[in-house]
Amino acid sequence: MRRLIVRKLLEALVTLLGATLILFVLVRLAPGDPVKLLLGSGTDVALSDTQLLDRKSAELREELGLNENVAAQYASWLKRLLQADLGSSIYTGRAVGEELAERLAATFALSVSALAVQVGLGMFLGTASALKAGKLADNVIRLACVTLASTPAFVIGLALLSLFAVTLGAYEISSEASPGRLWLPAATLGLLGAAQFARFVRAQLLSELGRTYVLSTLARGLDRRHVVRHALRNALLPLVTMIALSLTALIGGAVVIESVFSWPGIGKYALDGIMLKDYPVIQGYAIVMISLVVLIHFVVEVAYGFLDPRIAGKDKAEAL
Amino acid sequence: MSKLNRPAALRLHNLQVSYTQNGRPVPVLGKLSLALGQGEIVSLLGESGSGKSTIAKAMTGLLPPSAAIGGGELIVGDGAAVDLTVNGVPWSKLRGRKIGLLFQDAQQALNPLLTVRAHFRESLRFHRLASSAKEADGIGARLLAQLRFSDPTAMLDRYPFQLSGGMCQRVCLALSLSLKPAVLIADEPTSALDTVSQKEVLDLLRRVREEHGVAILLVTHDIAVANAVSDRIIVLNRGVIEEEGEARAVLSRPQAAYTRKLIASRSRIADAPRRSDEMPTASEPVLEIGRLDKSFHKRPVLRQLDLTLHRGDIVGILGQSGCGKSTLARCIAGLERPDGGRILYRGTDVVRLRGRARREICRHIQLVFQDARASLNPRRTAVQLVQEPLRYLRIGSRREREALARFYLNEAGIADELQERRPPQLSTGQCQRIAIARALILQPDVLICDEAVSALDMSVQAQILALLQRLHRQFGFAMIMISHDVRVLRSFCHSIAVMNEGSFCEVKPAEALHLESRQPYTRLLLQCAGELEAGLG
Amino acid sequence: MNMNKLAYNSNRPALSLLAGLALLGLLAVAILGAPWLAPHDPLKQQASERLEKPSLQHPLGTDRFGRDVLSRALHGGQSTLLASLTALAAALAIGLLVGLLAGMFHGSALDAALMRLIDVLLAFPFMVLAMLVAALFGTGLVHLLLAVVSVWWVSFARLARSAALHAKSETSYAAARVLGASSASLLLRELLPKALGPSLVLATFELGSLILSVAALSFLGLGSQPPAPEWGSMLADGRDHFLQAPHILLGPALFIVLTVLAFNLIGEGLRDRLDPYEKSDV
Question: In terms of CB atoms within 10 Å, which end of chain B has fewer, N or C?
Fold first, then answer.
């Protein structure tokens, strides 16, 4: 078991390294002077004093090691990353790392509650659909899910927003991350995710229900409830992967919903950064997102090792 | 054994079942009735498609949704008659407690994520036969001990994937018995097992009947299995009972033509007249295998194995599952690379060859697989399939290839009208014929048959073996015939090599094997096979 | 009747497949026939008819320049679909090739290297990458799709590799090897046909997903820009006037929903018919 964890950890680190390399290359490929990118063109921020701008440019050039070769630049950039130094926002002047940390909680709150809705509602609908496979209830649920899954998130978001905020006046329009404002964006994201998740659950469950051990459990006299519970438990393994992928999708895709509902998470932060051409913000956002994804994948692989006795057992057998 | 005063353990009246295929109902069973006396072992003997599995599933309410029950009444013990055509049958009370069901693939029948212990706990506590987990564990351990597990407590903590096929079947048997059913239906419980495990399971079924008084309905296609344990035999053909009666009587004095046909096919395999042609005089060896070693995940599968094959030889390799015979076949055919040793084809060590050179050897060494259907691409026609090797090795023009393909198909018994068909439209026996034609089109010097007839019905087995015999005489290739079933090898091969744990424990001429063998393992195999057939005419 | 009701009888006509194909057919006709079917010129501005609600003359209303939304949507469909299909074809081709090679040479250094590469690229969530590209290289559909393809092929590669590994474990593959097939033959005649089915199913789902993602990005202002009559840019246009004139946004959104729905239905229908292998390795 320990060998599995160590191996997956190493893989995760290599992946992270590779991803940061690609990020670095991308930024270097972008047209324009990287210093200008990171400091702004001087016209829109408080560096209108050209002398100050020149001095800051020179400092930054030195700091970034732009006077050295590419490999050294990458190394020094990496070193700064490891020290959690993500640069400073052009617009606000504050450390990007700090600003991201402040908003991360909001995004997490949104993503996690949306995930809860997605998994809860999705499991329910998917299971109901599978157990009544081929009947009217199944077809209705499937049609509803597939239509919902075909709808852009912002359409649902805008519709619900205008319904609850404008028509019903039950939702407050502001930029605060207050708990009272969490439910609608979370419900929106969760609803869309549930539609996708339900389809997946249905397919997995139907596949399990066709296996021989289901038949043999029935043959021993156990009732449907027991059998379905077993099938669900066994279908859970790939579901764990799906849930993890959903989480990464939610964190990344929450951008749109954060935009529609003015929810102050990291997605909206990055979006604003793009509009303002605040490159350190964008870069910092990318790094945080990539790290989160790699972390989640790592946790999933290890969890799989625990949940599936065949994987855990293999390691044990090899060690003997 | 007078059955007059004791109520039958199970009675089935007028069962009618049809399946819906492509929208139309296809009848499978028509008004079938049978009865099982208390503590009786009855074999339901029939080939594939006879409807025997359908009967087992109908009696436990486990038919697939595409089936329709047109009629049928089930009476278990002294209970009330159950009408199988209406809803509301109290299956929870019948399944497990009154009627147990054993499946063919025991490993698949166990929940892969649950330990054996968990299986016991669940069943026993659901049926309230145990009031605590510990009690359930105790019952489980006792039954496992009865079924000859040497360490029952350790077995409780195993997962299905850690057990062999035979062990899984014994676990399933223990699980079924823990619910104390009056009747046990065993659906082909031994067909996935090799001879030794087969005999083990069948012996246990007999013991179970003695110690628990369970009546057993044994569904099988194998006459030897029916012969080994049954009190009575019911012969089934296409949903109709051809004959039934006391086991000895049915097998030695069959009344129905179909029964006679079944028994005849078995004889064709097991008691075929000894080979009339002489053993070929020693010519230069075609295949020389020396000190072959192969391990998987640090576990040795082949150990220092030696084998020599001359032109026209037919060598049988007899071994049980796990002995490494399939690995040997794969190494010779080039599918696996051995870790050590050499395989000389006419002096060239094929182990050292790579790429194009190795592919050239494919013209000389060919392999026929156990699962004929799986080895054929279902989207291609028979003619296309047989031409494949010619295409791969770029032999001949398109017209030549097709002509050759048709020739070999005819030789293999696939008539012109069938040659444009695809595997889904052909029977398993026909699929194996195509596979054989495909292997022979390259005119190999060595043909390896890896359990090539094990998955076939008895009558079809006999046909395919006859085909191989004829082709061998006609084309003169050397054959390696791999099987776990000594009956198949005995009449067919010149010599038999007995394989155990990765090497040959003895190699003897076929006739001499059971007479002269002193090897304990060989004697065990032969004894098992013999006991299965004791009394068969 | 006393059956095992939990088992699903999958001998049912593929309703979703037919419905999906029918819907797609309708849409294709409408979109490809835009030059003839559209009631108005998509680029013609009519200041007098600004922001009109849907009416008989303008079935989906007009936008802030007085342009007919329906006509713009019909014409816009061509560029959206063309761009999406091109990107899909590219990603599918690359993914299949890489995935099959990795599967074919499973266990070798090539396979390990490719798997690492796939893992690295998978670490970039789609949105993040799109935002990065938009920020660094400017907005616009072409940039976006290039970025998309460079990461998208990975999903197809993983699936193709999985399918290849599964195919390799089958007896027919072993038979082909014994019969003398070269690596190229094995790849083309044994692995590729078996990988195509699941790949097509994935492709239909992914295409729908792509259209939705591009729509989302355009909505955010990062995708295609006005005045081109492309669904994405129409969304960006319509966002600002959503509360007064929701039809500007909902017009293209409707087309998007119908198109993605069509592809999803086709995908589900295909999957039911092809009966793909169930357990693919993570």
Answer: N
Rounded distance between C-alpha atoms, residue C257 and residue C23, angstroms: 11
- The residues, any chain, with a CB within 8 Å of residue C260's CB and separated by 6 or more, are A150, A151, C208, C211, C212
List CB contacts (< 8 A) between B374 and chain C. 170-172
Partners of B503 in the β-ladder: B500
Please name the helix (run of DSSP H) or strand (run of DSSP E) that holds residue C134, with its range, or none: helix C126-137
- Provide long-range contacts, Cβ within 8 A and 24+ apart, for A51-54: none
- Per DSSP, A163 falls in state I
User: Helix or strand or coil: residue B307?
Assistant: strand
Tell me which of A9, A147, A148, A158 to substitute to probe the interface with C (most C C-beta atoms closer than 10 Å). A158
Question: Minimal Cα–Cα distance from A295 to chain B, Å?
Answer: 27
B224 in Cβ contact with B532 (< 8 Å): yes
Closest listed residue to residue B351, CA positions, set B364, B336, B329: B336
- Those of residues 304-363 in B touching chain A at CB distance below 8 A are none
Q: Do A293 and C116 touch (CB under 8 A)?
A: no
Can you name the residues that pair with B94 across neighbouring β-strands?
none
Residue B327: alpha-carbon gap to chain centroid: 19
Asked if this assembly's ipTM is beyond 0.85, the reply is no
Distance of CA B127 to the CA centre of its chain: 34
SS3 B419: coil
Which of A131, A207, A208, A216 to probe by mutation at the B interface, max B CB count within 10 Å?
Answer: A216
How would you list the strands of the sheet with B99-102, edge to edge? B99-102, B183-187, B215-220, B41-45, B232-237, B240-246
* Contact flag B392-C171 (C-beta cutoff 8 Å): no
Say if the Cβ atoms of B369 and C171 lie within 8 Å.
yes
Chain B, window 167-196: residues with a beta carbon less than 8 angstroms from a chain A beta carbon: 172, 175-176, 179
- How many angstroms from the chain centroid is the CA of residue C3? 40
Q: Which chains touch C (3 or more CB pairs under 8 A)?
A: A, B
| Euclidean distance between CA atoms C232 and C223, whole angstroms | 7
Residue pairs spanning B and C at CB distance below 8 A: 87
Pick from B126, B183, B184 the residue to mutate for testing the A interface (most A CBs within 10 Å): B126
> What is the residue-level pLDDT of chain B in tens, covering all 537 positions?
444 556 788 999 999 999 887 778 888 888 899 999 999 999 999 888 888 889 999 999 898 888 888 888 999 888 888 888 888 788 888 898 999 999 988 889 999 889 999 999 999 999 989 889 999 999 999 999 988 888 999 999 999 988 888 889 999 999 999 999 999 999 988 887 778 888 888 999 999 999 988 999 999 988 888 888 999 999 999 889 999 999 888 888 888 998 888 888 777 665 555 454 555 555 778 899 999 999 988 888 899 999 999 888 899 999 887 788 889 999 999 999 999 999 999 888 998 888 889 999 999 999 999 999 999 999 899 999 999 999 999 989 999 999 999 999 999 999 999 999 999 989 999 999 999 999 999 999 999 999 998 888 888 888 999 999 999 999 989 999 999 888 888 878 888 999 988 888 888 887 777 667 777 888 887 888 777 777 665
Residue holding tokens 């729908």?
C208
Burial class (CB in 10 A: 0-12, 13-18, 19+), B21: exposed
Which strand ranges, in their side-by-side order, compose the sheet holding B503-509?
B365-368, B446-450, B478-483, B314-318, B495-500, B503-509
Rounded CA-CA distance B267/B252 in Å is 12
B61 closest CB neighbour out of C2, C170, C176: C2
How many C-alpha atoms does C74 have within 13 Å on its Cβ side? 23
> Which residues 181-220 in chain C show a CB within 8 A of chain A?
208, 212, 215-216, 219-220
